[in-house]
Structure formats: C-alpha cells, structure tokens
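2024-03-11 09:14:02 DEBUG pipeline.ingest accepted 1 chain
2024-03-11 09:14:02 DEBUG pipeline.ingest length=349
2024-03-11 09:14:03 DEBUG pipeline.predict start
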Amino acid sequence: MPTLEHLIALSDDTGIIQHAVEDIPNRSTGYCIDDVSRAFIVVLQKLDLDPHNVAAKRMASTYLSFMHDAQVDDGRFHNFMSHDRQWLDEVGTHDSVGRTLWALGYGMRFAPRDTWRNVSKRLLDRGVRALEWLSYDRSQAYAMLGLAHAIDAPGVNEADVARYKRGLRQLADALKRSFLENRAGDWEWFEPMMTYDNARLPEALLRAGLTLRDDELVAIGLKTFAFYERTTVEHGIYVPIGNNGWYPRGGPRARYAQQPLEAVALVDAALAAHDATGDPMHRAAAEVGLEWFYGRNSRGIVMARGGGCLDGLGEHGVNANMGAESTLAYLSAAYSLAARPAKTLSAVK
C-alpha cells in the first residue's frame, strides 16, 4: 500500500500545493479547493486503513480548515488561493463546489472524530443551498456522491436525511435527463462528447440509485458504465479518453494525453457497480483501473513513484511532474481497493 510520503511533501499548514516540478512542490501555483477536497477524502481513507497515522490526522484537520475558510456567505466556496493565503476568486467553479460537497459528505460519514464530522456537516448544510446553481453534469455528479454519503452518515436526523434525499433526487433526475437526451443508437452516454473524469457520471447514478432505492437509476448507471468500459478497456488494459481531443460521438477518440484522475474514477465506478450487482467482474474492472498506475497501460510505463504519480501519459512520453491531482488519484485508487480486499486482488505495490 502506498505511503503518504509525497502527499506530505506537497502539503503545508495551509493546504496542498497544486503542482510540482518533478517531485518538488511548486509553491508559485498556490492552492485550490479542488485538490484540498480530494486530499481530505484520501487522508480519511488512509485513517480507515491506519487509524493511528499521525500525518494523516494532521493533514485532515488542515484540509478541513481550508474548506471552512473557503466558504462564502451563500454557501458556495472559493477555489484558488495564492501561496501567501490570498483568495484569488470571488467564488469557485461549479466543479470545485461540487467536489467540496462530495468531500464534506464523505467527512460526515467516515471522519473518525466527532468534531470533524460536525464541521463537515455544518459546511455541507450551508453548501446545499448551491445545488440549484450547479449547472453541469460533473459538478452535479460530485455533489450527488457527497449527498449519498451524508444520507448514510451516523447521527443524521430524519429531517436532514429527507432534505439530503430531496437534493439527491433533484440532481439524479437532471443527470438521468442528460442521458435520455443524448443517448443515440449504440452511444449510451450522458453527453455528445466524452471528456474528463468520465466514470464519475455512472458512479453517481449508481450511488444515487442505491441510496434512493431507485432501480431505474441503478439500471442507467450500469448501462452507461458498461458502455464506458467497452470504450476504454482493450484486452484487459485501461486506455482512458485522452484530453488531446476527447471522444465526440461519431468521431475518433483521443488516446492521449491520459490523466490519472480517469483511472481512479474507473476504480470507484467499478466498485459502485460491484455494490449494485455483486458481480466479481466489476471488482476485476476496478483492479484494471489500479493497474494502470503500475504500468499496465498502453505505454507500459509505471506512473506511480514513491507515493506520488506522474501527471500524464502521452503518446511519446510522460509528464514527469508529480502534482496534487495525479498523486491523490493514485492514492485514492490504491486505498479504495486496499479497503476491499479480494482473493483476486493483485499485490498492491
């Protein structure tokens, strides 16, 4: 199981530095709540596996403090902060707000301290006022994941559960509409083009369907995940949609540059499909996503390095920098599968 070595190097008493020059934090790039929220989930995953990890406890408190400071009066959040602790925006992007709600719901459910769960709930309760503002499929999907966790969090009263379920239903119905409006022939997808963080969309519908006990949402989640898997897994090797052109319906799909966040999304979506069906093939698909980091990819290059991860896999080389997003994707994928051991699980490096 990977250590927190590189995450510790990227983190300080404010948050986590966005980018790196090879494995050296690039302080000039400052911080963003996108990465801080991801990092909060990762260290909570680590604490589930290693409850006495002192570094993970320290970083969890730091990341939650960042999110607390980032919240603005209407419940949304700033995203970008300079290294000298100055906010650089009036409010963050839709995706960054959705990701923060995801992290807070996760904190409500899995944080090992009452105080962390209490603060996570306080921030999420203010943040749900922004649900109608979230206008894009992915930002809505991220928030859906957070609400699904919040509903299952310990100690949440019936009134709050009902409120979270209303929000989850609203977002799930919007994502279902996206699917129904864009599916065409053998194109079983939510949009006319596959872009980034793709597997989060079926994952969100699966988690919403399981939480709301809605068989139609689960069915759509399984159908779209199957389409995604057929599109990106070639002879047992994961080849995510590259960001050098994406994949428009009816057009060629980009194979490069491949991003680590795609692989962790595959892991999580496959585990959601496994939860919905019990089918071991979905568990195996999650392993395919993890193995991408360890060199079972279209270039045969090991992306994981000493607790960190290279930023991208290209047709003719790699991005040798090891920033926050890629490192957190690797750690989260590894910790997700470590928390769910199976006899067929490949040894985690």
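2024-03-11 09:14:41 DEBUG pipeline.report Residues 133 and 277 are 33 Å apart (CA to CA).
2024-03-11 09:14:41 DEBUG pipeline.predict end
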